[in-house]
């Protein structure tokens, strides 16, 4: 079972929607799973043919769970740390698919988008999928364009591309 840490796994319907939109782009993709929790999104990406996935999580209890979930998965890499700090250290890498499911109501959706753009983490034709509460929508600024958005119960998933 999940550790007691406020872990809020991505609902199966939202996860399915993400991969329906992403489609075949996941094949061979370099994926980044931010606020990874149990790793459901990144594990799904790997199972659908992503070349690799970097999972970022800060909670020690959840990290232990995540490491067990990803043990033995080819291409899985787990990094401990706060997403807001970790992103700066990834500036030498690019990802084709960035998946983010930040805790709701803390302003982390916009902060994450801003930092991904600032550090140039999304590859030129890459897609970023962000799950958020239905009330917390990302501001689509000059850095981003909204491709699609779907509502799944109390959650929304926004699919974005970076403007270049």
Describe the 3D structure:
This protein is of the alpha/beta class. The chain has one domain: Vaccinia Virus protein VP39 (Rossmann fold, 3-Layer(aba) Sandwich). Helix content is 29%, strand content 31%. The protein is built from five helices and seven strands; from the N terminus they run αβαβαβαβαβββ. The chain has a seven-stranded mixed beta sheet, with helices on both faces. Helix 4 runs parallel beside helix 5 (108-118). The longest helix has 11 residues, at 12-22. The chain is globular. The chain starts with 11 loop residues before the first helix and ends with a strand.
In short:
By secondary structure, the protein is α/β, with parallel strands linked by helices. The protein has one domain: 3-Layer(aba) Sandwich (Rossmann fold), CATH 3.40.50.150. The chain has five helices and seven strands, in the order αβαβαβαβαβββ.
């Amino acid at each position: 079972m999940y550790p007691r840490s406020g872990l809020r796994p991505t609902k199966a319907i939202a996860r399915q929607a993400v991969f329906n939109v992403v489609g075949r782009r996941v094949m061979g993709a370099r994926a980044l799973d931010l606020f990874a929790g149990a790793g459901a999104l990144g594990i799904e990406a790997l199972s659908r043919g992503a070349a690799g996935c970097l999972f970022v999580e800060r909670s020690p209890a959840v990290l232990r769970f995540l490491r067990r979930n990803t043990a033995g998965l080819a291409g899985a890499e787990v990094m401990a740390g706060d997403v807001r700090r970790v992103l700066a250290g990834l500036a030498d890498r690019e990802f084709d698919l960035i998946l983010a499911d930040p805790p709701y109501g803390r302003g982390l959706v916009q902060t994450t988008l801003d930092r991904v753009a600032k550090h140039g983490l999304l590859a030129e034709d890459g897609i970023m999928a962000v799950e958020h509460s239905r009330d917390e929508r990302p501001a689509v600024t000059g850095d981003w364009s909204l491709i699609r958005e779907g509502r799944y119960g109390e959650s929304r998933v926004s699919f974005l591309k970076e403007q270049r």
